[in-house]
Amino acid sequence: MDAQEFVDLMRRVVSDAAITDTVSVLTSPPGRKPSKPLLGMSEFYNKQTLGDKACIDMIIKTSVEEAVFGFFCVLDGVRAIEDSDDRGVLSLYYEGGTTIKLNSNGDLHDIYNSK
């Protein structure tokens, strides 16, 4: 696995899944007794016109993608998570047949943002 493949997989199993799952939960909350806040959000969502739902869906998509992009920025070291001048470095490795450092070039966020 290389950085591109990792980012592509994260887009599919994290970003795209979060977007799809959120819209699905808003459309039809799961479980026997969904929480009142969730039921309220669902009621609001389901009362919207198709155009308004499309706008809400785009807001969800943008929010998820910004969060994942931000996480990749943290992994790449371009967004600090520490306030001190003595900052550590995060390293992400894939261990399979060989061990590969996925964030060695600090470009996970650029790869994610390129599509």
Domain unit count = 1
Coarse morphology: elongated
Distance between the termini: 19 Å
Q: Helicity level, as a percent range?
A: 55-70%
**Main sheet: strands, sense, barrel:** 2 strands, antiparallel
* pLDDT < 50 runs, ≥5 residues: none
Instruction: Give the strand tally.
Output: 2
Strand content: 5-15%
Strands across the major sheet, in which order? 1-2
Radius of gyration from the CA trace?
A: 18 Å
Report mean pLDDT, rounded to a whole number: 94
Give me the strand/helix succession. HHHEEH
SSE-based structural type: mainly alpha
User: How many helical stretches?
Assistant: 4
Please characterize this protein's 3D structure.
The protein is mainly alpha-helical and 115 residues long. Strands 1-2 form a two-stranded antiparallel sheet. Helix 1 (3-27) packs antiparallel against helix 3. It is elongated. The longest helix is centred in the middle third of the chain and has 27 residues, at 50-76. The chain has one domain (3-113). The model has no long low-confidence stretch (mean pLDDT 94). It contains four helices and two strands, in the order αααββα. Strand 1 (93-95) and strand 2 (99-101) form a beta hairpin. Helix content is 61%, strand content 5%.
